[in-house]
Amino acid sequence: MELHYIWVKNSGYLSQAGINLSARFVFEMVELENKNQQGDFLLKISVNPNFIPDFFDKKNVSNVTAIIGKNGAGKSSILKYIKSNLPEGLQAGLMYDLFCYSFKEKESEVESFRVVIPDGMEIKVFDETKLFSKEGYGGNTSLRFESKLSDVDYINYSYFLELNEDMVDWGGLINISTASLLLKGRKRIFEERYTESARLELLSQTSDLENLNLDEVARAIQLLGMEGLQLPFSKPKELTIEININERIFFENNRSQKAVETLLDDLTSANTWHNPKEGFLNNLLFAILVNFLIDDKKYSVNNPTNYSVPYKKNENVQEYILRFFSGMADYRFEYENMEVSVSRYKELSFLVKEFYEFFKDLIAKGTIRIGEGSTSFTIPLNDKSDVVFSKFRAFYLKVKGIGSFFNFKWRSLSTGEQSYLSFMSRFYQVKFHGHHDLKDNLVIMIDEGDACYHPEWQRKFFNESLNYLSNLFSDKNIQLIYTANTPFLSSDLPKSHVLFIEKKEKDVSIFHSKNNNREETFAANIHSLFSDSFYLDGILIGEFAKNKLDNIIKFLRNEDSFYPNDAYKKTIDIIGEPVLRRKLQDMWFEKFGLEEELIALQKRMDEIQKLKLKNRRKRGLK
Fold first, then answer.
1. What pLDDT is attached to residue 327?
2. Source organism's superkingdom (predicted)?
3. pTM value?
């Protein structure tokens, strides 16, 4: 299935917007003046003479479209409209929007073309191609309109956190945007079979951001185990996890928590440093204890429990902390003349021991490597990493309280490298670790996917993503829709594959037809494209520099400016653009050239006079 054209009468920022996603055809919707006789609108369909079949040399890629425009022009609004209204058929609330698409039957390679017209509007279709037949939708039905238009899964990717994103999980939509994934950890807790009290406990202990971080690490580990994986940077060979006990500071010099501070000091003194493995297990249990005590003493307001276990001087760290938690199994406290147990205590009484044994086993088998100082460990990335981290993650989320006692670090990955890894790993998980079977047709929407990248990576992004996604989903038919506000993407695409959106006054956006007079984009010079009004309004320097030069020009043109400004002169001399620098130097010379020559001559004359006086004095001494 390929989506060719959408006409939106009125939806948010989209008003009578013709969204031409097709490279093969040119669509144009015209409002008719004489509506009573011919209808409300006329849809014209023609063949795009500039279309090049199989341009991308990918048999499973039906089409690629780049939606180009400045911030606020409506790029993301198009993706939002698609993912909110099209998955699994047209939304029941749609009444006046039009759609054009094509599909191939499984039994044959014959392609059929459809125009889906709302029943509530009179639309005349003038089809020069003679390919499209009409379908109607709407009427009195409250159900979603389903046809071959619904025979597709939509995948939405965005690395940025979109605060206004619609979080509804439609069937047929796989949302791997950061905003959607941020909420999935919380949703998972609601869906799993926890008791109400256990669910509330888990929700209070974990943050959405921490869940997202753990999930991103897990996805990256899955991806990095892929054979033949190619990255534009050195592939991380291991994941480092640090033990974090910074919250211990809460108990230091805290008069109300003096007993806890003394206990932690005693355990620190009893720690074993000469044996790295024992020291690590000590630090692990110590961090779990501090994490629990922070919850128990800091975050639990009016906590009626008073659980404590006296420390025996002959005990080592592991013996005491394991005894501390195992004793929780039978702990009761009196509340309103009743003995009450604490479900969280019961869980920790066995979870901490299991977590501890899990790490002992990893150390014994050499699965992890203890770091220097016994305060960290590394998980080598191999074919077993996914299973190990999955078990670790499950234990960690159950044992930890509100705060964290682990920090996760890759090998000094930059923001751009993390973004790239996230992009690839999210799609990889959809393909190999998703919870449902994908349909044969995919529409993949990538909202500013090259954000956070170095310009060289931006230049390569389309080629890299096209190859990766077409190979990853080699058994599917895919349509790619990108959005961008930089020219790197458009330089890789013919103009017939680019939809230009221009924002005009009063927040009105113009969606340019494929029959536009813009210059060809494919293989166009990226620097030349930057000067296009769609990107930089023809201005190729930073706004601060522009304002600085504007002030200098005003100064040079001001008839009341009689004396040179040394700071302005130095600024002109350091301008990097040679033509602009020379022009301002000429303006400077025209205004202050003679004055500066007189000053220079006077300075030279003064130096000569000083030299003559010096020579006379020397002769006088002789």
1. 92
2. Bacteria
3. 0.81
